[in-house]
Amino acid sequence: MQTPATAVNILLPAEQPFAERLGAPLQSAQMTEDTSAAGLLQSEGLVLDPTPVTLRIAVLDRDSGFLQVLDKRLERLGWERRVLASSVSPETIVPMRLSAVIVDLAVLGPTCWEWLERLCSELPELPVVVCTGSSTVAQRVRGLRLGADDWLTKPCHPEELIARVEAVVRRRRRLESPTDSLPILAGEVEIHRDQYQAFVAGTSIDLTRREFELIELLAGSGGRVLEREFVYQRLWGYSMVRGDRSVDVFVRKLRQKLERVSPDWRYIHTHFGIGYRFAAEPVDGSQTAEEFAALDALPEPSEELDLART
Fold it and tell me: Which residues contact 302 (CB under 8 A, 6 or more apart)?
């Protein structure tokens, strides 16, 4: 009679999960980099892309050795990068407009799984690459199922980490909805996100970069009212200071430009005390004066404000 097979727990006693090592000092997980990363790869038969894509990433890590080696390579690539020494909320990450996030879960401690799940669920379009110390099969599977796009174990070569980031970004872009490249149509206005331009009857509206970002945000909200604080954080990347009227001023400028090129339609509607809603509605001849009087009375932003906000 054959003895029944005994179930094997993949969390082997010999393995030490990274979450249990947090009490000990963080050990340097430096990536072994030759004096020439390109030379090393070429010696292995690999060729670097001479025209790499410029990305904007955040690295959640506290390992100085790891960060130093990685930063050197990212600097040569021309990537924009930001180092985060502790966990930040998804709401804080949104205005950073990142292409991807690299995270060492050991930095987050026991809350790492909760943080990872929240990040991936609230920002499903943001690629996440976990780059951490030795881990168990169960931990890697858990992280990937919570939403991480890839998992790499330290120590690792910087080129491999960068290649994995590029790969997950490529995959995400391929999966993006085809509608993302289609223009937004509202009344007489066509907003082409891929061209950073808006048109009326085939003629481009003269918009600044900030004004285009504003009309894209408002028009892409599906008719919802967007609070001023939300608009400010999305466009300027940080919390709005009490009394700051930058959003109101830019809405007024954008509204005036739309009225000049499309006078028979109203697009931006004010919800006083709350924010703004974008919806194309034909002019009925009685709605503009009172609705826009308050905003038209706003002072022009100072020169310093223009330089800081645009």
Answer: none
Between 95 and 30, name the one with better pLDDT: 95
Domain boundary among the residues 175, 197, 216 is at: 175
The pair of three-digit structure tokens given for residue 297, joined into one six-digit string: 């009375």
Task: Give every CB contact of residue 221 below 8 A, 6+ residues apart in sequence.
Answer: 277, 278
Buried b (16+ CB within 10 A) or exposed e, 229-259: ebbbbebbeeebeeebbbbbbbbbbbbebbb
Residue at 219: amino acid letter: A
Identify whether the C-beta of residue 191 lies closer than 8 Å to the C-beta of residue 216. Answer: yes
Question: Of 175, 197, 214, which one is at a domain's C-terminal end?
Answer: 175
CATH number of the domain that residue 83 is part of:
3.40.50.2300
Cα–Cα nearest to 188, from 305, 93, 281:
281
How many structural domains is the chain composed of? Answer: 2
If pLDDT is split at 50, 70 and 90, which confidence band does 92 have? Answer: confident
Look up tokens 């061209």; give the residue.
195
Residues in CB range of 75: below 8 A, 6 or more apart: none
Q: Which two tokens stand for residue 13?
A: 């006693």
Sign of CA dihedral 172, 178, 182, 187: negative
Q: Do 189 and 267 contact (CB within 8 A), yes or no?
A: yes
Q: Which residues span the domain enclosing 154?
A: 18-175
Is 0.85 topped by the overall pTM? Answer: no
Same domain, 105 and 217: no
Q: Say whether both 162 and 262 belong to one domain.
A: no
The 3 state secondary structure assigned to 147-201 is: CCCEEEECCCCHHHHHHHHHHHHHHHHHHCCHHHHCCEEECCEEEECCCCEEEEC
Residues 198 and 104 in one domain: no
Give the pLDDT confidence score for residue 142 in this predicted structure. 93
